[in-house]
Design brief:
The strands form four sheets. Strands 3-2-1-4-9-6 form a six-stranded mixed sheet. The chain has a domain at 3-198: Spore Coat Polysaccharide Biosynthesis Protein SpsA, Chain A (Alpha-Beta Complex), CATH 3.90.550.10. The longest helix has 33 residues, at 278-310. The chain has helices at residues 13-30, 49-52, 75-78, 98-104, 125-132, 151-164, 167-170, 181-191, 259-272, 278-310; strands at residues 3-9, 36-41, 56-59, 83-87, 91-93, 109-110, 112-116, 137-140, 144-148, 197-198, 204-205, 214-217, 222-226, 243-244, 248-250. The chain is an alpha/beta fold. Helix 1 (13-30) crosses helix 9.
């Protein structure tokens, strides 16, 4: 079957820029593979010329796929023939993806995760399962989805879109005032008995699951994230891993504004344009990394004094909030 990577970049230039960086990281590590890379966007003119050499553009009309997280409920209509791995635009790829396609192969719709039968996950899961007479639903990070073009995938995604109409009635809680694609897809998958593949932290991870820090070097393919073991107060009890090295690094939320991401997308751009040399490496260190390191250290030292004098600052609204 054909193998495809697909990402969505609609609504804002911000998302197109993120998709460009994702595409470049894909090309760096999968240049010689037969995997095709697709960008779905309503802003095709913003895709940079170098990316068009190894990416295919699927153009949609503004608002055609809905807003917020809803576009991810249309992957069955957007995906080309064959195997498709959807990756959120705020990710970077750190290696060859052949093994990921092999692990998913044969599953009409799948994700990386486990199951949840009770507790809270954008709603009281036990009550929702009882409502639909199911034992559990898959729980996962919607930064990646896998599907194989066909009747089964179409039925699952059609069900997710149908469930979205009754999102609040079902008992799901909204994310950024929008329906969350993850719980809708989880419920639709369970209703059609679609199974996740076990999360062993080799495919994707993120700094929220690993709050103990991380290091990345996109050119060398080096990366690690740390979930500090207990009794460290930062330990995520729900994440059963300590130090991980995923192929796909998900820079959730504001992590794309941190210097490691900014530094590495700069270096990546220079590498693919044959301009990565001692001067551009020095620029990445001196003009991107160190100013933010100094700023962070300054804040850590003087934050108590600032709050004592001026109080707590109002939270700045993120450009990504819809």
């Amino acid at each position: 079957m054909n193998r495809n990577i697909l990402t969505i970049a609609t609504g804002k230039k911000l998302y197109v820029d993120l998709a460009i960086h994702l595409a470049r990281s894909f090309y760096l590590w999968n240049e010689n593979s037969d995997i095709a890379f697709y960008i779905v966007t309503d802003l095709p003119d913003l895709v940079e010329r170098d990316v068009l050499k190894y990416s295919k553009i699927i153009t949609v009309k503004k608002g055609e796929l809905g807003e917020g997280f809803s576009p991810k409920l249309h992957l069955d209509k957007l995906a080309p023939e064959g195997q498709t791995l959807f990756i959120d635009s705020d990710c970077l790829i750190f290696g060859n993806l052949d093994s990921v396609f092999e692990r998913f192969k044969g599953k009409p719709v799948s994700v990386v995760g486990g199951y949840i039968a009770d507790g809270e996950w954008f709603g009281e899961i036990k009550e929702i399962c009882e409502q639909f007479n199911i034992p559990h639903i898959p729980k996962f990070n919607g930064g990646i989805y896998y599907l194989e073009k066909g009747e089964t995938a179409s039925k699952v995604y059609a069900k997710a879109r149908e469930l979205e109409k009754d999102y609040d009635k079902i008992g799901f809680k909204r994310l950024r005032n929008r329906p969350n694609d993850e719980v809708l897809m989880a419920l639709a998958m369970q209703l059609y008995q679609m199974e996740p593949i076990a999360d062993d932290a080799t495919i994707m991870s993120d700094p929220q699951a690993c709050p103990g820090g991380y290091e990345i070097d996109i050119i060398a393919g080096k990366r690690w994230l740390l979930n500090p073991p207990p009794p460290n107060p930062l330990h995520r009890i729900w994440y059963p891993f300590t130090k991980v090295e995923p192929l796909i690094f998900h820079f959730l939320g504001y992590y794309t504004q941190h210097y490691p991401y900014k530094r590495e997308i700069y270096r990546l751009d220079k590498k693919l344009k044959n301009k990565l040399n001692w001067q551009t490496k020095a620029y990445a260190k001196l003009n991107i990394e160190w100013p933010e390191r100094i700023k962070i250290r300054f804040k850590e030292l003087f934050r108590p004094v600032y709050r004592l004098v001026f109080g707590t600052r109002k939270i700045v609204k993120s450009e990504r909030i819809v």
